[in-house]
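Fold this sequence, please.
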Amino acid sequence: MELISKPHRYLLFLRFILVNMVATALVAAAYIQGWMDGIFVPITMEISLGIFAVFLFGLCTCGARVWRTSVELNDIRGGAPRDGTRAAKYLNTVYGGGPESRSLGASALRLKLSNGVAVVRQVANGLVFLGLIGTVIGFIIALSGVDPKAATEVDSVANMVATLISGMSVALYTTLVGAVLYVWLTINHRILTSGSVNLIGAIIELGEARERA
């Protein structure tokens, strides 16, 4: 109810939802148009499901961290970070300390938030490598059906061409799946990155304001 009544307080998370709704709609439209039919065949589908599972893990991780960041930004704007949040831990660490203590605390805070963002980035990069693995598997399948000795036999040539096309289909579709999901997750990573940068600035600013008070 709070998310609906005060949407301006959750702009970061709402941006995350909007981006993924649009991306899901585009994928659904591509499926309806039949552009994804080549994915739902043996081998290609298995590899694509594996890539999608990794993507889903990265997306859920990113979504959880975007939500947490959005909630903490709301608390900071309200001037009262809840106990256990990163803002509260930072304020407790630097309270009563000098400029050097606040500087060290700010550096530690940046490092912690950066590590959280880096996990999503690493998963996104992994999608590209998984797509390339599918490409290699596809080429192996394509070349496994090539027999130079049987190149002069009409029946054998037909089988070789069929195997070659099947292998190339696996290579191209798995590469496409990896690339599209990489772009999708990277966009979400950018949302999380911008939110983390805003959170760091807000926490440090709140800490400085309390020291001056």
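Confidence is low (pLDDT under 50) at residues 1-5. The chain is about 80% helix and 0% strand.
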